[in-house]
Amino acid sequence: MLNYKQLHHFWIVARAGGIVRAAERSGLAPQTLSGQIATFETALGVNLFKRQGRGLVLTETGRMVLDYAEEIFHLGNELEEALRSRATGRAVPFRVGVADVVPKTIAWLLLAPSLDLPEPMRIVCREGKFDTLLGELAIHKLDVVLADRPLPQNMDVRGYSHALGDSTIAFFATPALVATLKKGFPECLDGAPLLLPGAEASVRGPLLRWIEAAHLHPRIVGEFDDSALMRAFAEAGAGVFPSAARVGEQLCRQAGLVHLGDAGGVIETYYAISVERRLTHPAVRAISDAATAPAQRGQAEEI
């Protein structure tokens, strides 16, 4: 039987990066922590740390154990929070980070299943830069991050990427702007004022390559890290803008924009990034299950 007290002491030392710092943060004596770690290693039959200079570093096995410990204690914190919420009749908080390059309508479509759970959820959305949100996810200030890319392999953040679906990219513009463009698609983009997502958007590179392959020469009049700001400029007639084809009907109906055509082969994929290998938060499971359910898979792949 795993000794969770010893696992907790290991977790404290691993997160602190050493016995002395862990003792300072936890209030426990260094000798206590050192003894607990030694007993834990003996019980498991493995070495979790190795000496490096005057300090300790995790072994490969230690890193694996730390991954599990992170999940175990994060889940324990969620359990306490859920029990407190139930006891007081409050909704369970669902803390979501949305990368600013993800279209807001797409974020709504992906998150909508979390609102249909039997247990009431209170969504707390934070929008920001991808790297910033991953940092908050790593310290458990967020339950999940919605992004247009998976977790980078070279990022010093423990996390797991769960694909939620994708969408072809299409071009839209106001009727007044369309009247000034060349006839036909994609010829209408040649010489047209074009709004582009910023350098952090994963779809930017494929879009530019598609434009180059089509021998088009639009005038890039704006670049935006925030997809909502780019849409606002487009609705004001500043330029043609690319967006997920999945929300094209809504853009045309609500914003009065015109669908010019699709960038064939340019696909934007959306991900839920969590610190858990196995999803445990009910709202995160709901959005993942909705995206992968057989009955909805066709729609999910278009989102």
From TrEMBL:
<protein>
    <submittedName>
        <fullName>Transcriptional regulator, LysR family</fullName>
    </submittedName>
</protein>
<dbReference type="InterPro" id="IPR000847">
    <property type="entry name" value="LysR_HTH_N"/>
</dbReference>
<dbReference type="GO" id="GO:0003700">
    <property type="term" value="F:DNA-binding transcription factor activity"/>
</dbReference>
<dbReference type="InterPro" id="IPR005119">
    <property type="entry name" value="LysR_subst-bd"/>
</dbReference>
<keyword id="KW-0010">Activator</keyword>
<dbReference type="GO" id="GO:2000142">
    <property type="term" value="P:regulation of DNA-templated transcription initiation"/>
</dbReference>
<keyword id="KW-0804">Transcription</keyword>
<dbReference type="Pfam" id="PF00126">
    <property type="entry name" value="HTH_1"/>
</dbReference>
<comment type="similarity">
    <text>Belongs to the LysR transcriptional regulatory family.</text>
</comment>
<dbReference type="InterPro" id="IPR036388">
    <property type="entry name" value="WH-like_DNA-bd_sf"/>
</dbReference>
<dbReference type="InterPro" id="IPR036390">
    <property type="entry name" value="WH_DNA-bd_sf"/>
</dbReference>
<dbReference type="GO" id="GO:0003677">
    <property type="term" value="F:DNA binding"/>
</dbReference>
<dbReference type="Pfam" id="PF03466">
    <property type="entry name" value="LysR_substrate"/>
</dbReference>
<keyword id="KW-0805">Transcription regulation</keyword>
<keyword id="KW-0238">DNA-binding</keyword>
